[in-house]
Amino acid sequence: MEEIINRVAQSALTTINLEELLHPGERVVYDIKDNLFQGLILREKDFREFIKTHDWTQYAGKNVAIICSVDAIVPTWAYMLLATKLHNQAHRYVFGNLEALEQELFQEAIAAIDAEYYRDAKVVVKGCGNVPVPTYAYVAIMQKLLPVASSIMYGEPCSTVPLYKRPKV
Question: Which residues contact residue 136 at a Cβ distance below 8 angstroms, ignoring those fewer than 6 apart?
């Protein structure tokens, strides 16, 4: 009886699983509509009082999407003032919806990757997992890998779709 050899495990492939890069912190939406007078306008005095007295510790370590879900007059400085309080509490905060927040979190994670680790490597970008990974994250990882990797594939190490192979010089 011949020994079964796992060629995938012995290969020189390096796998990147994008879902492992994502910050695990909770995602929350802060809707500034709750600070509006009669649901229409932000009054500076009331808002500044809210900023002073609100318990900002509830956002500690969380990822916050700041929105205004109603058509209202909200000056830009109000969002900036919110940022001053979220800055020392939240892991990440963005102006926009949860999708914009996810994009920022993926961009942050991909930017933190040391591309040199993948220099001349044969890389497989894992395609399936337990957490849905948005397409923009796959495009962003390509931007990071193309200058350094010798080849890039998509899928699982046992079944890949070739995407890029550095031309021989």
Answer: 103, 106
Question: What are the phi and psi torsion angles at 155 (to 5°)?
Answer: 125, -140
What does the pLDDT look like over 38-60, one tens digit per residue? 989 999 999 999 999 999 999 99
Q: Report pLDDT digits (tens) over 94-144.
A: 999 999 999 999 999 999 999 999 999 999 999 877 888 999 999 999 999
Closest CA to 134 of 101, 102, 163, 160: 102
Q: Are 89 and 57 in contact (CB under 8 A)?
A: yes
Tell me the C-alpha to C-alpha distance, in Å, between residue 23 and each of 70, 86, 135: 29, 17, 17
Q: Pick from 25, 28, 35, 49: which is nearest to 79 by CA?
A: 35
